[in-house]
Structure formats: C-alpha cells, structure tokens
Write a structure and sequence with these properties.
By secondary structure, the protein is of the alpha/beta class. 40% of the residues lie in helices and 18% in strands. 39% of the residues are buried.
C-alpha cells in the first residue's frame, strides 16, 4: 500500500492512508511517510486475525473531513472497512475495493467458518456499493466465489513493488559445488506449507542429498510446531528458524538466497509478494500448484521457477534436488525472474492502472 501511495504521489496525486497501529494501546497519530499522509488508528488487540478498533469509524470521518479525498480506496479483507457502510461522508465518495484474498479457504480454521456468514453480509454490502473491484491476478479472479458475483465491476491489476536496494557485503560468488541456499519468508500459519518443506528436507537427507540449507524467516502460531518437527527429524543443522528479523536482515537473506520457497497449500495465498521481492534480486522460486492462487501466475513454470504438486513433500524434494544438480538452471531462472519483475511487477505499472480507475470513478 505504501509503495502504491508513493508511486501515485510521484505521478501527481495526493494520497492519504488510514490504517491500524501494529501495537495495542497507541494513540491516533498522523505523519507523512514517503509522500503519503499516514493516519494510524488505535487498536486493542486482535480477534480471529483481525485488529479490534472500535473507534475506526470515528477516525475515518475525521480523516475524510481533513483530507477531503475524491476516491475511497478500500483494501480487503478488513473488518474495519465495514465502518464505511455507516459513514455518510464515505458514502458520498466513489469506492475502489482492492481484493487481496477471500476470507475462507479450504483449510480455514473452524472459527472463521463459523463467523463468516455474518462477516459475509457486510462484505457483500461493500462490494455492492463499490464502483470498481480490483483483483490481483487472473487465476484468482477466475475462481473466487465472492468475486464471481460481482464480475461485471471487477478488473485485474497485478500487485507491484518498487525495486529493493542492493546491499553491499553480500557474498554472491559462484562456487560449485556449494550448498543450495533455500529461503522461506512469511508468517508461520496453517496455509503456508512449512511442514511439507521440512518433510521434503528429511526425504533429501534420507536419500543422501546433503548440500542443501534452508532458512525460515517469520513468526506465527505454527512456529513451535515447525520447530518441534525440525528437531524430531534431526534437521537442526539443515534448517534454521530465524523468527523475526529486521528489514536489513531480510534484504540480506533475500539477496543471498539461491531460491525462494512458497509452498502454500490453498488460495488464501492469493499472490505472494515475497516472490516479487525475491525476483527483484534475481532469485528463482518453487511454489505449489494451487487452483486460483496467484503464485503460479507470478512464477512462470520452468522459466522463472518451478510449480510443483500441492501438499507433496516428494514433489518439493524432487524440485530441490533438480535445482541442486543444475546450478546454471537456477541462475538462468533467477535472471528470467528479474527481467519479468522489471517488465510486469514494478509498482509504477500498478499505479498507472489504478490512477486510471480513479479517473473513471470521478468522471
């Protein structure tokens, strides 16, 4: 969102954003970040992955009065967006809804399935009220049961990011044979597929494939379970769980990696921004083949990476072993990924298309 705001600002638009504080107990504040007037609203913890922010509607009206926007751009899923349905000030504006993912997937927790019918009522009202709905990839747009009901107002605009800085001091020398450096980045949660990668690493070790290392960056409710799995399989020397790392460390790990892994098991993984971040550094990817997910759209199979069978440690192990045996192919796929990032996934392309949508809404 910040990359988009900055890019729109560079193209002459004035941009403000209202979002939640990451930490509970913080006061409402306003600051200018990268050209974007950023308003942050107090929260009081989380419930079912959603921030608890009962005064969001009050602050939404306050920001509309102060900033006087021409368009309201709503990112979904987002429970606080429902306050727009109660705001006369918000209803006077055209709405653009950015649909990042459906709430429910095949493996969604029971509590999401239990409460989704109530959530879905407000979700539908938002979509009915919207002038335009942005889907982030053609596969997701084609299969989403929610977007299918509003297909006449939907358009596809792929996500984009600005190029990441190249860090000095990173050892990228080509020494063969060298360990294949694999990287996973993201929240350790039920749909990310960490357990299948750990099983794949165990399969490789049992078959005598030793020259592979995996770093896992992120925290989440599955962290302890993944850590216990790594230890029980005797893989602590092959797999490191790094937990949270700062931004510079993240960039350093991305720049040094040979391949990024994103073996998510359902289309809750709607796009995979980390795939673009890795591609920016010329890092190829291995992703799982999930119907409707944008992963296999971002990663062109056999060109910028590999798309393998979903929920299959054997398929992941085979893909990793193949890449270990063909380092030149890894480098070529990485270079292809970098070229595709430049051509299709830079934020300027997304910003230009979204500004066109804003213009259509206000004309």
């Amino acid at each position: 969102m910040m990359d988009l705001g900055e890019a729109c600002d560079a193209k002459g638009a004035q941009v403000a954003a209202i979002c939640h504080h990451h930490q509970a107990g913080q006061r409402f504040d306003k600051r200018v970040v990268r050209g974007v007037c950023l308003y942050r609203v107090p929260t009081y913890g989380q419930l079912m992955f959603a921030p608890i922010s009962p005064r969001f509607g009050y602050y939404l009206n306050k920001v509309i009065d102060e900033f006087q926007p021409d368009v309201l751009h709503i990112h979904m899923p987002n429970t606080s967006a429902f306050f727009a349905l109660l705001s006369k000030k918000a209803k006077r504006l055209p709405w653009v809804i950015h649909w990042h993912s459906d709430v429910l997937g095949e493996g969604s927790p029971w509590f999401l399935r239990l409460f989704y019918p109530a959530y879905g009522v407000f979700e539908s009202q938002l979509l009915k009220r919207a002038d335009t709905v942005i889907a982030t990839s053609p596969p997701y747009f084609a299969i989403s049961p929610v977007l299918r009901r509003f297909k006449s107002k939907c358009t596809v605009v792929p996500l984009g990011i600005k190029p990441l800085p190249v860090l000095g001091g990173c050892d990228t020398s080509e020494v063969d044979p060298k360990p294949l450096q694999l990287l996973m980045v993201g929240r350790l949660t039920y749909y990310k597929g960490h357990q299948y990668v750990v099983e794949a690493m165990a399969l490789l070790c049992r078959s005598g494939v030793e020259n592979v290392h995996l770093n896992i960056i992120g925290t989440g409710e599955c962290f302890n379970a993944v850590k216990a799995q790594v230890e029980s399989l005797g893989l602590s020397d092959k797999i490191r769980l790094l937990g949270h790392v700062d931004y510079q460390q993240l960039l350093s790990h991305l720049q040094r990696a040979d391949m990024i892994l994103l073996p998510s098991i359902e289309r809750t993984e709607a796009f995979g921004v980390v795939l673009m971040e890795a591609a920016c550094y010329g890092v190829a990817a291995i992703v799982s083949n999930v119907s409707g997910s944008g992963m296999s759209y971002v990663v062109a199979d056999e060109k910028t990476g590999l798309v393998v069978e979903n929920k299959s440690p054997k398929a992941l192990a085979a893909a990793i072993e193949r890449m270990l045996q063909h380092p030149q192919l890894v480098r070529q796929m990485g270079e292809n990924a970098r070229k595709r990032f430049v051509e299709e996934f830079q934020i300027e392309q997304s910003a230009a298309k979204i500004l066109e949508l804003y213009q259509k809404c206000t004309n």
